[in-house]
Amino acid sequence: MAEVLMMHGVITTDQMMHHRNIAQRIVEMRSRWKANFSWYPAAQLQQYSRFADIYKESRERYGDADFKRYVEMKRLRGIYSTDLDKVKRVEYQALSCYPMDYMKGIRISPTTNGDYGLIPPAHHHFCDKEKVKERFTNA
């Protein structure tokens, strides 16, 4: 027991007062935040929930072409872009998504070095996208 106390040393009164002062400041800061700024997260959520409605109204008011330019200029998220981009986005997602079960038939390597070619390459290893479609649709 004495060895444990010697390892950590002696805590002085000044150190104790310093830690107590820091703890008290933290409590004061939390109570000050609660009194002055606790309303902010709720107000922020309320404002952010209106984004979709505001963009919908703007799109109806100014048209698809102008709204699309605004979306590109402000780099808004894809959910606010027009339906014209939806077709391109769906095509791109279909091309970039591949099934995650491509490692289903893997066998354990019989040697310590391992056999090469146990794991078939994923779609992004192929250069030709048609080969990707053939590989995953016929498999």
Characterize the structure shown.
The protein is mainly alpha-helical. It has a domain at 14-49. Helices cover 63% and strands 0% of the residues. The chain has helices spanning 2-8, 13-37, 40-49, 51-62, 64-74, 84-96, 129-138. The longest helix is centred in the first third of the chain and has 25 residues, at 13-37. The N and C termini lie far apart (68 Å).
Topology:
Blueprint: H1 2-8, H2 13-37, H3 40-49, H4 51-62, H5 64-74, H6 84-96, H7 129-138
Index terms:
single chain; 139 residues; mainly alpha; 7 helices; 63% helix
Q: Which stretches of 5+ consecutive residues score pLDDT under 50?
A: none
Q: Please trace the helix and strand order, writing H or E for each element.
A: HHHHHHH
Number of helices: 7
Number of strands: 0
Shape: flat
Biggest sheet details: none
Work out the helicity level: 55-70%
Distance between the termini: 68 Å
- Which structural category do the helix and sheet elements fall into? mainly alpha
The average pLDDT is: 77
